[in-house]
Amino acid sequence: MRLFLVYSSVIILALVSVLHFYWVFGGTKGIQAVLPEKKEGKVAFTPRRVETVIVAVGMIGVAFILLVQNNLISFFTPNSFTKWSSIILSIIFLLRSIGDFKYFGFSKRVKNTTFSKYDTQLYTPLCLFLGIILMTSWL
């Protein structure tokens, strides 16, 4: 079961990375559903391409660290770097699921936007799931 959860997490992270690369190269589908909105319907922030590339590459990095920390890549062994990376990444994902007390996470106050609906149903539970999976890799 544990391997299934780890491999599922890696697939999810890879798909999220591919989606971010799609946006970097000019794709527009789904953009409205992933940007937090203010109550007035205006986007809270617009990420630049370089920030989107960082997220895309970062998701692949998270997947790689998860695989290494769980000893699933034969030519890499878990070490202190992968352990501490897993700890830090699990904290990041868990904090993302808690939220910023305004636009995203379980603590968000802005709740009647397209983003907030997807955040409640998909993004926040996904971050909680990834945080827990990363946590189990170093416990």
From TrEMBL:
Keywords, A to Z, come to:
Membrane, Transmembrane, Transmembrane helix
Look up the domain of life of the source. Answer: Bacteria
Any stretches that span the bilayer, and where are they? Answer: 6-28, 49-69, 81-99, 120-138
UniProt signal peptide = none
Q: Which InterPro entries match?
A: DUF3995
Membrane in keyword set:
yes
Listed name of the protein = DUF3995 domain-containing protein
Organism the protein comes from: Metabacillus litoralis
The taxonomy runs: Bacteria, Bacillati, Bacillota, Bacilli, Bacillales
